[in-house]
Amino acid sequence: MVQNIINVKNLSKSFDISSKEPGLKGTIKHFFRRQTKSLKVIKDISFEIKEGEIVGFLGANGAGKTTILKMLCGLIYPSEGSILVSGYLPFRRKENFLKNITLIMGQKQQLIWDLPPIESFYLNASIYDLDKFEAKKRIKKLSEMIEIDEELYIPVRKLSLGQRMKSELLAALIHEPNILFLDEPTLGLDINAQRNLRKFLQKYNKETNATICLTSHYMKDITSLCKRVICVHEGAISYDGKLDLLLKKLSPVKEILIVCRSEEDAIKLENSGFTVKNKIKNEITIKIENNSITSSLKTILNNFDIEDLFINEPPVDEVIGKVLIKKDYDI
Amino acid sequence: MNLRKYLKVYKKFLHTSLASELEYQTNILVDLITAILSLVGSIFLLSIFFQNSGYIGGWKFEQALIIQAIYTILNGITNTWFNPNLTEIVKHIREGTLDFVLLKPIDSQFFISLKKINPSGFLEIMLGFLLLFFCIRINQINLNLSFLTLSSITISCSICILYSLWFFISTSTIWFVKTWNAIEVLRSFLYIGRFPLSSFSFSLRIFFSVFIPIAFITTIPSEVFLGLTVFWKILLEIIVATLFLINSRKFWLFAIKFYSSASS
């Protein structure tokens, strides 16, 4: 039986936030008498993650995804509740715990700006107490997996964003962690770089059975990597479960574009009881519920003269977008 | 603590930061010229003060030069290690990159205090030592083992106090975010360390001994060089340095509990 590697129970986090009124008067008031209020950004959340799982955290900006990730890796102290990651209390940041995890942030970098990435890799290797031979072996293995080669010897400031991100990944994985926390790792990357990064993460997960917790605003990252998603809405979990179940729930119908041989057939189909979205000459678009799609298509193909047929999935972004604004999904 | 690992990491720190700094040759050259001009200017200023009367606060010009030499060494150490590293803390906290430091299996205070070096500060340290040897000659100081031990202890204590002062201010960034002005104020106070403490009024002497211990940083080591100091002063400097160092550690461990990381 696969063990839980992350256990979170009734976790909450509050921050003291100061607010400022607009204008000069507000600025002076803010300078002399700062008004702070406690804001609960994470509200009593509980979940478990199994070893080797890839879990996507979904939510609008400010929903609390990054705060959860930072509490899981021990950067932020929780206000209430308990977290156990790989058997450790993360915020104690014990050496063995830190050797097991890594955090990769799409918008922050740890590489030394003026030097080639290889220098940062060897520096990290010494911090993780790896000898030169072992470090060299791991750099070779990871650079082959991640497909970087001569970029290793070019100063970071001269690398493209995609090349930098690959190097960041390598720097963060040199100690072969078994838990990866990824906060928007594909931010700002072009489509090919995004795809390569996803491919690498899939390969890394498959080869090392590493657990991956991922936040991303690019739905392709989530759909191609995560079977399970945790949706966060205003600091609380609105859904925790399989991604395909969520998609089915959120888009219960499919749109089917049918091209009939003649306009007469299209009219006949229009009047046959299906929900019609639109009709242009011999082309008709109908909506069919997911659970009756096979039987409906059989009826159409048997009773009408059909030239062509297209099944359109609703865009995932559009579907997931609904999650970001809704408080609760009971599946 | 695995000493071998920390030495290995420090060797890497030295290598990477030297390589980073040497990427910009002109900057290094400008820093080197600045260090020489700054020392020449300071000695010139000191000689002006001594032009009318041969003594300031009971110190001769040749004796006051020792303070200048120790100040130059300490300023060199500040420019080599404290300035590049401890100003980086402010950047780490403001930009949230302290995350990477805290998640490394290495002491975070060691990492942020020693990761960078500015090689041009080495020249200042060397110039300081040259001036110190010159002062030892002109003041006809007898170099014996007890003198060398006491002077090394007091200079080490000065380094600890100076480091702790910088570290306290930089760490407070966790709450106040911008503390750059406080660092500049500290630097200004340190300029005072170029003059003998006895040349100031009683109230200023108290202020620079109790509140900002400039007296401990330059005057006491200089007194050791001249054989003017008394044992209790050295003991007091050791106690002050130990307290400062211990408290800087405690303060750091306390402060990082409040680190909320920058928003993404």
How is the secondary structure organized here?
The complex is a heterodimer of chains A (331) and B (264).
Chain A: E1 4-19, H1 23-32, E2 35-50, E3 54-58, H2 65-72, E4 80-85, H3 95-98, E5 101-105, H4 117-127, H5 132-146, H6 161-173, E6 179-183, H7 191-208, E7 211-215, H8 219-225, E8 228-233, E9 236-242, H9 243-250, E10 253-260, H10 263-270, E11 275-280, E12 283-289, H11 293-303, E13 306-312, H12 316-325
Helix pairs in contact in A: 4-5, 4-6, 5-6
Chain B: H1 3-21, H2 25-52, E1 55-56, E2 59-60, H3 61-95, H4 98-102, H5 108-114, H6 120-138, H7 145-171, H8 173-176, H9 180-192, H10 202-211, H11 214-226, H12 231-255
Antiparallel strand pairs in B: 1-2
Helix pairs in contact in B: 2-3, 2-6, 3-6, 3-7, 3-11, 7-9, 7-11, 7-12, 11-12
What does this structure look like?
The complex is a heterodimer of chains A (331) and B (264). With 331 residues, chain A is of the alpha/beta class. Helices cover 37% and strands 30% of the residues of chain A. In chain A, the strands form three sheets. Chain A has a six-stranded mixed sheet, with helices on both faces. In chain A, strands 11-12-10-13 form a four-stranded antiparallel sheet. The longest helix of chain A is centred in the middle third of the chain and has 18 residues, at 191-208. Chain A is globular. Chain B is mainly alpha-helical and 264 residues long. The longest helix of chain B has 35 residues, at 61-95. In chain B, strand 1 and strand 2 (59-60) form a beta hairpin. Classes of the chains: A alpha/beta (331), B mainly alpha (264). Chain A binds chain B through residues 15, 66, 70, 73-77, 93, 95-96, 98-99, 101-103, 105, 107-110, 112-115, 119-120, 122-124, 126-129, 155, 183-184, and chain B through 2, 5, 8-9, 11-13, 15-16, 19-20, 23-24, 95-97, 99-100, 102-106, 257, 259-261, 263-264.
